[in-house]
Amino acid sequence: MYKITLLLINLIFGSLVLFSYYNGVTKNPDLSAKLWGGVPESLRTFIVASMFISAIGYFFFTSNFIFNVNLHEKKFLGRFPGWSLHIIYLLILIPSSIWIDLTFQYLKSGVPLHWIYVLSALYCVGLSSILLFLFVVDSGNSNQIIYLISVIGAGFFVFHTMFLDGLLWTTFFHSPFNK
């Protein structure tokens, strides 16, 4: 049942993330370019490539949890039951699905509290991805190729969500490059 729940969480909330991005960009075409904030053009291609690498990594580590880890018996980090993985995924997927709308709200209003909402969503995802990475590392047999790919993919996911989104994007968003 834990694996089915994990699959459903990803199908439902993952679809919600994709829909929120599509909906946000199509309903706010005039503001879509401003989502980059002040991130320099020279970094944008790298960041987009990182998005795709992270998504592929996400697919691998999620598949590993679904196909290779007994979530009913697993105690992650010797302490957390298998169902705690569901909470971590929700802490990643729900804020990811509201980030774009929060950002558009901030771009329209300029209200500092709205910026705090954006930061809260990004850091919730980034910090949760670190915990997810630890669960991935603790999830399997290091002799299996899917495990190794999962660990590498989770590492890319953390790098993207915590460093590129949480630190780089938030730092550059209000930079002079935005003018």
Write up what this structure looks like.
The longest helix has 28 residues, at 41-68. This protein is mostly helical and 179 residues long. A two-stranded antiparallel ribbon has the order 1-2. The mean pLDDT is 92. 77% of the residues lie in helices and 2% in strands. The protein has six helices and two strands.
Q: What share of the residues lie within helices?
A: over 70%
In what range is the share of β-strand residues? Answer: under 5%
* Overall pLDDT score: 92
Instruction: Using the alpha-carbon principal axes, give the shape.
Output: elongated
Q: Compute the number of helices.
A: 6
The helix-strand sequence is HHHEEHHH
The largest sheet, given as strand count, sense and whether it forms a barrel, is: 2 strands, antiparallel
- Classification by helices and strands: mainly alpha
Ends apart, CA distance between termini: 51 Å
Q: How many strand elements?
A: 2
The whole-angstrom Rg is 17 Å
- Oligomer, anyone? single chain
Adjacency order of strands in the biggest sheet: 1-2
pLDDT under 50 segments (min length 5)?
Answer: none
Compact summary:
By secondary structure, the chain is mainly alpha-helical.
Notable features of this structure?
179 residues, mainly alpha, two-stranded antiparallel ribbon, 2 strands
